[in-house]
Specification:
Strand order of the largest sheet: 1-2-3-4-6-9
Order of helices and strands: EEHEHHHEEHEEHHEHEHHH
Radius of gyration: 17 Å
Shape: globular
CATH architecture: Alpha-Beta Complex
Number of domains: 1
Length: 233
């Protein structure tokens, strides 16, 4: 997957470009996302995370790569570490979600500070049907954002979330038929604000996930991987 980075003044964009695979990622792609985000974050006020095309925002982890993963890969889950660092970037991050955000793609969107979605967007965590859990911060981050009851309906009950429902929950902040353009407009407006004030406000408001809660996600995922692949021990 190509990951394109661009900057205009204090506004930057990070664009996932693997439309034939619904922008699914593997370790190489995750490392590219992180490297480009790190390079931009200290220089701008706002970073927009988006993807090309209209099919999907991000379909999560590449299933072919997951088949080769072991319980050790889950225990040191790269996607969780990348998304957690994305959440902790000093700049304001906006996810522009033009289509479904599924599994790890949902977790990528949750790692951003703000979310702009198309009415065609939807959100889902299908992991428990596959014998795993949302472990890249999703299990804890969703509950922190929308409350335990709603998060349980999504993670345990398998409920999908429409764009309109996400807006009513506060999961999405704005709906637009052109979410990338709307995110760019909002981002440009935010970028006119004082840089230091934005960064301090983000720090003060940041409800940080504890290292223990994220570790529990990884350990649970490792147990599930080991159960599915005993030969990997």
């Amino acid at each position: 997957m190509a990951v394109h980075a661009a900057r205009e003044g204090m506004l930057a964009t990070l664009t996932l470009d693997r439309p034939e695979k619904a922008h699914a990622y593997d370790r190489v792609h995750l490392d590219e996302i992180l490297a480009r985000a790190r390079a931009l974050a200290g220089e701008v006020s706002v970073l927009i995370v988006q993807s090309t095309g209209d099919r999907a925002f991000c379909g999560g982890a590449d299933l072919d790569a997951m088949k080769a993963s072991s319980f050790l890969d889950a225990l040191e889950l790269r996607s969780q570490r990348v998304f957690d660092e994305l959440a902790r970037l000093p700049c304001v991050t906006i996810a522009a979600i033009q289509g479904p955000a599924i599994a790890g793609g949902f977790e990528l969107a949750l790692a951003c500070d703000l979310r702009v979605a198309s009415p065609a967007a939807r959100f889902a965590f299908p992991e428990t049907a596959l014998g795993i859990i949302p472990s890249a911060g999703g299990t804890t981050r969703l509950a922190a954002l929308v409350g335990a009851s709603r998060a349980k309906a999504v993670v345990l009950g398998g409920d999908g979330v429409s764009a309109e429902q996400a807006l009513s929950w506060g999961l999405v902040h704005r709906l637009s038929t052109e979410p990338r353009a709307e995110a760019a407009r909002w981002g440009a407006e935010i970028a006119t604000r004082d840089l230091v004030a934005l960064r301090l406000a983000k720090q003060v408001m940041g409800a940080e996930l504890s290292a223990a809660s994220l570790a529990r996600e990884r350990v649970a995922e490792a147990i599930l991987y080991a159960r599915k692949r005993p030969e990997s021990r």
